[in-house]
Every structure is written in C-alpha cells, then in structure tokens.
Amino acid sequence: MTKHRLNEDDATTIIPRVSLPETVEELAAAERAPRSRRSRRPVVIVAAVTAVLTTAATGWALAQPADQSTPVPGALPTAGSRSFVDGFGEVSASAEPPSRSWPRSPAARPSARPSAAGAPSVLASPGQPLASTELLAGSQRSLRAADRPDRFVRQSGGLASLVSVTLTSAGGVRQEATFTVAKGLADANCFSFVGVDGGYLRHRDWRIRHDKNDGSALFRADATFCVRPGSTPDTLYLESYNYRGYYIHLRGDELWIDRWRDRDHRFERECAFAVTAPWG
Question: In terms of pTM, does the model score above 0.70?
C-alpha cells in the first residue's frame, strides 16, 4: 500500500464509505422503488421539527403567570372634535381649548339629567328659597345670588344683572326676574333660561346677555348652561356648555363667564346661586 492510499479497514479513514449498487440490476431496482419509500426521510424530519416546536410553545405558555392580563391601549390625546366659539368668532381647532375641569369642591359633580316639570312639589311664596333639585325643565323659577339674599338675576335692556326684588317691587321688575327653565338648547342634560319676552340668557363677549334665539348653533351653545352642585347646601354653579371650566360669575351686579379659580373662596361665593319660587 502506498502513502496515497488508505487501508479500507483503517478506523481513521477520513472519507466515509458509500454503499453503491454492485450491479446494473440493483441500480434499476432502486430506481423502480415506490416514491413514498424514497421520500419518507424528509417527511419524518418535518414531523420531528413540528413536534419540537409545539412542545417548546406549550412549555413557554405554561411558564407564564396565570393572572397576567393583556394591557389595553389607552385613548390617544386629541385636540377635540370641534372648535370653541364665542362672540369674537370661531376659534381654530388647533388652539388650546378652555379647561374642562369642574370645580374641585368635594360636592361638585355633574348634575343629573333635567326632568320635565310636573305639579309643583312645594307651594312657596314668591322669592322663597327652594332646593336646588327644584330647577326643573318646564317650571318657572327665579335665581338669587347665594350670598346676597335680596339680589336676583334680571334681564333688562339686552343684559343680565342683579336687581333687588321684594314683595313690594313693581310687577315689571318681578317679571324680569322670573325665567322659564327649559332643557338646554345644545344639550338636553343641561338648561336654558327663557325670559318673559321669549329671549334667552346667553354669553357673548364673556358677558351674560339676554337675546332672541337666532336659530344658530352658536346661539344654542351660548345659551346652554350645565348645573354643578354648589359647595354649600341648596346652591349651584352654572357652567358654560361650550366653554367648559367657565362659570357664570358676579362682577358686582354684572354677570359674566369667568374661568374657575381653585382655592378662591370669594370667587366660589360669587359663582353660587340659589333657586327660588318665581317672582312673576
């Protein structure tokens, strides 16, 4: 044996021995073998790999904590679906909208849906204080400044203001201090206030006015106010529907809408109103 040839029986041989058909007949017999027998090895390999992957996936699932929950995606912040508008015209939707926070008084929460007025729940003399829940759609009511017992909201000359009203006041003054409570023009969960002449309390240029309904969406929004319970019993706040976080606020005897001021007790008192039996 030369150095260029390896012993066939040598265990250190590098090239594996390959079994080849010894005769042409054996080669032909191999070619005639059924295809299923020849392709059995790939099928076995695929089945084995599938079993391994299935076992691994099952083991991973069992290893997870039983109480693990899938997180729910939170809502994405948006700039709002509509613009806010006032007497100065439409504000761009890209502008920062007014705050939508409610007063931080512990009692300040959204009020219940207004209910239609039925028979009067109490028989009260004109100007007598009522529970704030007596503000009912379809009823006639007067609104008094909570910390000024003789001063009532009055519509006159296109503006709303406070006026002193007593049993001896002229009939015209008493009628001007009386409003029909209606479901909100822009939101039936809130209220609108109609004067004796059919005009509505509404805000424009931040001032509370008394105007005829022009049928516009802007007017309906300006004339809608949402009730929030006051910080003292049987008082309430009136929040602007389209300027959330802005409330009817007294500046002397004038009525405006101003942004809520946290921890300002004087401001809270100037925003509080009491419901009374109607004067007119």
Answer: no
